[in-house]
Amino acid sequence: MKVSGFSKHFLIWAKIIYHILGNYKTKTLCKLGYFKTTTGSTHSRFSSVSDSLKYINQVFQDYLSFADISVKDIKGKKVLELGPGDNFGVALKFLIAGANKVTCLDKFYSNRDIAQQYQIYKAMRDELLQGGKRSFDSIIKLNNHKFEFTGNKFEYIYDRGIEQALEIFPSASFDMIISRAVLEHIPDLDAAFNSMDKLLRPGGYMIHNIDLRDHGIFTSVGLHPLTFLTIPEKIWKLMTGHSGKPNRMRLDYYKHKMEELNYNYRIKIILSSTLPMIENIKPKLQPEFKKMLSEDLLPETIFLIAQKSRNNPSADE
Ligand SMILES: C[S@@+](CC[C@H](N)C(=O)[O-])C[C@H]1O[C@@H](n2cnc3c(N)ncnc32)[C@H](O)[C@@H]1O
Question: What is the pLDDT of residues 169-189, one digit of tens each?
Fold first, then answer.
């Protein structure tokens, strides 16, 4: 879709106003203790159980292959999954692979279709061999179209962001912190990394899949994919500070943060834009983005794999 100059400005301002109102609404609802949202209702948007299984298997497989780990590296580990959304299939895969415990922490409660969730868990169980079924049954009971997590290997906490997680977990509680499409939704990423750093035991891993795109804010109406980087920071904060919309942190942020924390890390670029596309809009970007290397503006989706140093003192503070 090609958008003319006038309609471009109109669309941008219409979107800005829409998101400022949405952000204010989420802030007010959270203050009133209402944490339900459609953010993270990933499976509600799938049309079949097999789409859900495909997604769960892919997310699990991506953690293994991008971090270059195998099932034996998961055995006995305590895992923190950030922002699971409406389904715990990935947590179940980690537990069935031998994790000691998986804690799912979400700032919001993603709306979910319980009947659909039952069908997903049932289909996951059907795929397992006898030994896997036994592990599955010790974690989640399926009965009469209902499901219930039992035992102490799985934990789900919502209404708390990772930024506040030190209020509920002691330092060095986890061997692995994983997330898919979550970090880009956190407005105060410094606070999130500070928290994750303290929660990881020395030698522990973080594996994050991060989507650096505009999440449809402007692209859904045919605007350039980097239009969101042309909006001044103050306005962007009004649009997104509470609603979990993208925080606009770029590749360089993650590199600097890992260096600051002294992690051994690598970043894999999964999806990338093209240089002509970046150069096309670069003069209109906000100064903080304009001064970046074009190469740092190219990545659209990345995997951050980082290991905390074995003698990193932050966990003992
Ligand atoms: C795009 S969804 C991704 C859901 C799921 N990981 C998936 O792949 O379908 C983003 C998730 O991050 C959660 N989230 C947003 N801010 C968070 C925060 N500060 N701490 C933990 N989770 C957060 C949202 O509630 C939502 O569940």
Answer: 999 999 999 999 999 999 999
- For ligand 1, pick from 182, 209, 213, 243 the residue to mutate: most ligand atoms within 8 Å of CB: 182
Residue with the smallest CA separation from ligand 1 atom 2 is 40
**Per-residue pLDDT band at 30 (split at 50, 70, 90):** confident
Q: Does position 5 have pLDDT exceeding 90, yes or no? A: no
Q: Which atom of ligand 1 is nearest to the CA of 187?
A: 19
Structural domains for the chain? 1-34+214-249 (no CATH), 35-200 (3.40.50), 267-317 (no CATH)
Structure confidence at residue 315 (pLDDT) = 46
For residue 85, which atom of ligand 1 is closest to its CA? 27
Q: Whose CA is nearest to atom 27 of ligand 1?
A: 85
Three-state SS for the chain is CCCCHHHHHHHHHHHHHHHHHHHHHHHHHHHCCCCEECCCCCHHHCCCHHHHHHHHHHHHHHHHHHHCCCHHHHCCCEEEEECCCCCCHHHHHHHHCCCCEEEEEECCEECCCHHHHHHHHHHHHHCCCHHHHHHHHHHEEEECCEEEECCCCEEEEECCCHHHHHHCCCCCCEEEEEEECCHHHCCCHHHHHHHHHHHEEEEEEEEEEEECCCCCCCHHHCCCCCHHHHCCHHHHHHHHCCCCCCCCCCHHHHHHHHHHCCCEEEEEEEEECCHHHHHHHHHHCCHHHHCCCHHHHCEEEEEEEEECCCCCHHHHC
